[in-house]
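Friendly challenge for the regulars: who can give me the structure tokens for this chain first? No prize, just bragging rights.
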Amino acid sequence: MKRLYDVGALLARLGADTTVVLHSGFAEPRWLARQLAEHASAISGAHLLTLMPMGDSPYAEAGPAAQLDVATFFPGRGLRSALNDDRARALRYPLSAIPKLFDSGALRADLVLLQVSSPDEAGQVSLGVSVDYMRAVLAQSPLIVAEINPHMPHTCGDTRLPISLIDWFVDADRPPQELSPAPADQVDEQIARHVAGLVRDGAVLQVGIGSLPDRVLAQLGHLSHLGLHSGIVTDAVRPLIESGVIDNSTKRHLPGVSVTTMAGGSQSFYDFLHRNAAIEFHPCSLTHDASVLASIDGLCAINSALQVDLAAQVNAESVNGRRVSLPGGLPDFAAGAVHAKGGVSIVALRSTYGRDGASNVVSDLGAGKLVTIDSSHVDFVVTEYGVAAVRTASPRQRAAGLIAVAHPRHREALQREFSCAVVTSSA
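First reply, four minutes later:
Bragging rights claimed.
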């Protein structure tokens, strides 16, 4: 392992036909990302693969993006604008499929830029708060450049990497990206109450990030023997773990420990994760694997969406032609939950969006709209107006239930549109 002084010279040696992988989510190495942007011309035409950058993405600004082929498996906060301005392109895969792209050789990494913990006494660093598909990338033996950050937690699970495998290193110039708590309003609170009412003692939770999942978790303190098997964890899980509400006692797969592949939160939460054996990080080839998820009794998948139509098809990716997200782990966990014994797949959304209060419950997602999951992978759709049971309902019952949880201002129009569609299909 050598200290890296000149990123531009290193990149120039790689050339144009290079694929660079950035460490994902809140582990994205911020100094290296800036250097990549500043020296983009040294590898003009190179491919850059990302997943859920949550801070600034300097490599996707107009100048660097003209030199680089920036692609993302999940845009996160840092790439949404770039995705919609054609400065980055979408790779539309569920998280479970990404490692297989590297395992098969469909994607090959020449360089991976990591942010890791300080080495331990055994000469091992940790991938910290993001493991996801990094194991599949590292298995290809790319050139490894790492920011070594003493503020990155040495997390438990499958996160360790011998420092001898790192080719070049720099010292991180600031702590890992943090996630500020998202403010919740009365609508979030009401949706969260409805969702929380569907969670039972002994359930194994999967949740996302944002104000709604935070508020759901805050309302589960009265339950007992909950488990946690999720794609990401945040500060909001900490009180439930520390109080013993989440004890993972019902789990057969990795019993007694909470499981995730990523984390995002405050530095205090990262300190909580440091060497905390109660929380294990594993690759998404395990956390999102279909057979693993189906084997988790009581898996309760709680996910957010943008739109749902009266057939209970769910769009969690775009609205008004603007890309907001990509499938991520939603298809994996929704399918896993409906196949698990006692599992339940919950999709939550606000009834309206925008200043004009357009309905998020629509008659039909329509041709060309993205369907992230269909009704076979949804048990309940929840808005601030209540809960619609959809998976075992007839088409007419399903539509009636969804109209009932739509905003009252839109219910009459939705009923007319559904009735017209039924008449048309019967003609």
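The first helix runs from residue 7 to 14. The chain has two domains: 2-171, 186-426. Your move, everyone else.
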